[in-house]
Amino acid sequence: MRLEFQRIEEANDLLNQIIEHHPQAIFLTDHNFKVKYFNKAFQKLTKSDKGDILEHEFCEIMGCTQRDKIPDSESNFCKHCQMRDLLSGSNLSELVLIRDFYIHNKIVTKHLHIDAHRVIMRGQKYRLVVIDDRTQKH
User: Fold this and answer.
1) What is the pLDDT of residues 71-122, one digit of tens each?
2) What is this structure's pTM?
3) Residue among 44, 84, 53, 90 at smallest CA distance from 66
4) Cα–Cα distance between 43 and 25 in angstroms, integer?
């Protein structure tokens, strides 16, 4: 079956509803690694308020325990951060990330399967990221 829309607004509305209610965590970052959009599942995964997500980067939101251990003086990111490589638009488009995060003042080991996709909106390049939290399966 192929969906056909009369107006672009109809397609946008459908796409927004699909993303918002998708069971996997989804977020969109700009070229500075800052989160510009996220769905309810991402907010649930991070256990964060909206203000603690928008305009912040993934490792800051999740409380990555590796953050600032080997910082790059220019960006304040870990020099060998796989998540940064994924979001930078490098050849990496899929990542299995097993890492400790500080969530509600506790260290939690998360098993995340992450897919990233390049997206262009209004002439700007973004990364659309889908996270499957497989922690409970391990």
Assistant:
1) 455 555 565 677 877 888 766 688 898 888 888 788 889 999 999 999 888 8
2) 0.81
3) 84
4) 8
User: Is residue 2 pLDDT above 50, yes or no?
Assistant: yes
For the chain, give the longest Cα–Cα distance: 52
With the C-alpha atoms ordered 52, 57, 59, 60, is the resulting torsion angle positive or negative? negative
Distance linking the first and last C-alpha atoms of the chain = 37
Q: Cα separations (Å) of 22 from 41, 51, 121, 130?
A: 7, 21, 21, 10
Q: Outline where 21-98 has alpha helix (H).
A: 40-46, 58-62, 82-87
Cα(36)–Cα(48) distance, rounded to whole angstroms? Answer: 15
DSSP-assigned letter for residue 21: T
